[in-house]
Amino acid sequence: SAVISQKPSRDICQRGTSLTIQCQVDSQVTMMFWYRQQPGQSLTLIATANQGSEATYESGFVIDKFPISRPNLTFSTLTVSNMSPEDSSIYLCSAVGTAREETQYFGPGTRLLVL
Amino acid sequence: GENVEQHPSTLSVQEGDSAVIKCTYSDSASNYFPWYKQELGKRPQLIIDIRSNVGEKKDQRIAVTLNKTAKHFSLHITETQPEDSAVYFCAASRISRLTIDISNFGNEKLTFGTGTRLTIIP
Lengths: 115, 122
Description:
Shape of chain B: globular
Structural class of chain A: mainly beta
Low-confidence stretches of chain A: none
Number of strands of chain A: 11
Number of helices of chain B: 0
Number of helices of chain A: 0
Oligomer: heterodimer
Distance between the termini of chain A: 37 Å
Radius of gyration of chain A: 13 Å
Strand content of chain B: over 45%
Largest sheet of chain B: 6 strands, mixed
Order of helices and strands of chain A: EEEEEEEEEEE
Structural class of chain B: mainly beta
Number of strands of chain B: 11
Helix content of chain A: under 10%
Strand content of chain A: over 45%
Largest sheet of chain A: 7 strands, mixed
Shape of chain A: globular
Distance between the termini of chain B: 41 Å
Radius of gyration of chain B: 14 Å
Largest interface: A-B, 24 and 25 residues
Helix content of chain B: under 10%
Mean pLDDT of chain B: 91
């Protein structure tokens, strides 16, 4: 199974600023995703992080607000830009392993509070 | 796109009794259905999954059933214990590696249900 870490684990930010969240996997993975989870709610997919190309965003999420990078098969970043209090949430990355495995593993999440 | 509904939103059972959580999905092309358990402040953890070519799967006290015709699947936990208390999420996905459908390659995104908060009463 893939082991996923995220940095930072939590942060408190001022509105109008940006925060970049890093996701590191301990092995090469085929797919990486970014989710948002509001307190007490389910997980909502933000985008699929594509290695070497632009991320694929879900409806309601745009690149200008949530730029994503994936420079290689083990690392991805999500930036939350021009933050507002409505962006306060938990952001989780996930990864799907090798070609013979469908299981999606999750990182520990980044808890973001925007004041 | 896929839509997954989950019921109930909260469930309380006496320790030792069984718990059942049900989900329905809308996309008949979905072929992979995992269940995740999320404890407070922790990441979602996969507890069991089922593929569309199987009707039932069991792992010790946990079982999942799938009815493709009705497009619903259920999680069954028997002999519940206090450590089973958590939020449980069902999900659905189209896994291209389970089929020879190259057009879906890379479309393994999960659509989650709304979650069930399970409380085991000692």
